[in-house]
Amino acid sequence: MTDDLSAIATLTAVTKRLGSKPVLEGLDLAIRAGEVTALLGPNGAGKTTCVGLLTGRLAPDAGTARLFGLDPRRPAVRGRMGVMLQTAGLPDVMTVAEMVALQSGYYFHPRPVAKTLALAGLADLGERRCGTLSGGQARRVQYALAICGRPDLLILDEPTAAMDRGSARALWATVREAADAGTGVLLTSHDLAEADSLADRVVVLDRGRIVADDTPGAIRAQVGGSVIRCRTRLALAVVHAMPGVREVEAEGAELRIVTRDAPTTLCRLLDADPAVTDLRVGDATLEDAIAALLAPPHRIAA
Ligand SMILES: Nc1ncnc2c1ncn2[C@@H]1O[C@H](COP(=O)(O)OP(=O)(O)OP(=O)(O)O)[C@@H](O)[C@H]1O
């Protein structure tokens, strides 16, 4: 990873314990200029710990963290980074524009405050006190604080949590624009549609280890085939034995069946349970591919 010349932030062979628990084990991660990297994985996988290491909030127990070639705790490199954390309080009494102006003052070449407010979808909210904002509006202020200094590296930890779809899509557009202009972006998210449409690269973390690192298309292709969803009285094991079936999982009251041969699996399914309902067939999504990589215990895989 350290020989990756386009990398602007790296974790190399990083091991980190928190409390008595190993959280990351020998992890390599590189964030490159002009690329949106989505770091995905279930709760507790270690995503926020990676963010903590790259932003200098945490130090590795073994291995190295580098930001623009230096220790992330060095003030010289911190000014080139904008960070939007999962939780960051805003002072109730300051207005949105005052907060953005204050944060902009920490950077050498900040954007004009009005431009930052517009990019974050806050043009009409500049005079509002932060304490009166909704959850989604407060997230947009945190985004404004992350981008106001024109950072070379933008770290967004679950940026669109609490945002409505329209606000989220507007934020994606500005993130894409920043990446196209050369900013390296690290995004953590539980919204796999967000990762699929925004990321150039998806890194999947499971229990502190990387289980996939590729383009969203290449990760989807690992699953391939089709996904059938339906309600049926058939047992998982019976469906799993049907021709073409690669894996079967209970998703609430439905079954999610990944198959290499949808027509044959469908015929057999309808033969075995003519009362099957809510039947849908579609291509495997990024969510299907990641579910296959993570292998939860309640799924049967071929
Ligand atoms: N200060 C701490 N002390 C002990 N354990 C911790 C501490 N902080 C985090 N952990 C543990 O480290 C593991 C990784 O946590 P982390 O927050 O990095 O996961 P995550 O992938 O960001 O999860 P989420 O999707 O829930 O935000 C979890 O098991 C968590 O309980």
Provide tags for this entry.
Rossmann fold; Alpha-Beta Plaits; 32% helix; five-stranded antiparallel beta sheet; 302 residues; 14 strands; 2 domains; globular; single chain; alpha/beta; six-stranded mixed beta sheet; binds adenosine-5'-triphosphate
Question: Could you explain the architecture of this structure?
Answer:
This protein has 302 residues and is of the alpha/beta class. The protein has helices spanning 47-54, 75-78, 96-104, 113-119, 135-147, 165-180, 192-198, 216-223, 236-240, 262-272, 286-294, and strands at 7-18, 21-32, 36-40, 62-67, 81-84, 153-157, 184-188, 201-206, 209-214, 226-231, 245-251, 254-259, 277-283, 299-301. The strands form three sheets. A six-stranded mixed beta sheet has the order 5-6-7-3-8-9, sandwiched between helices. Helix 3 packs across helix 4 (113-119) and helix 8 (216-223) packs across helix 11 (286-294). The longest helix is centred in the middle third of the chain and has 16 residues, at 165-180. The two termini are 33 Å apart. The model has no long low-confidence stretch (mean pLDDT 89). Bound molecules: adenosine-5'-triphosphate. Adenosine-5'-triphosphate (ATP) is lined by residues 18-19, 21, 23, 41, 43-49.
Summarize the structure.
This protein is an alpha/beta fold and 302 residues long. The protein has 11 helices and 14 strands. It has a 6-stranded mixed beta sheet with strand order 5-6-7-3-8-9, sandwiched between helices.
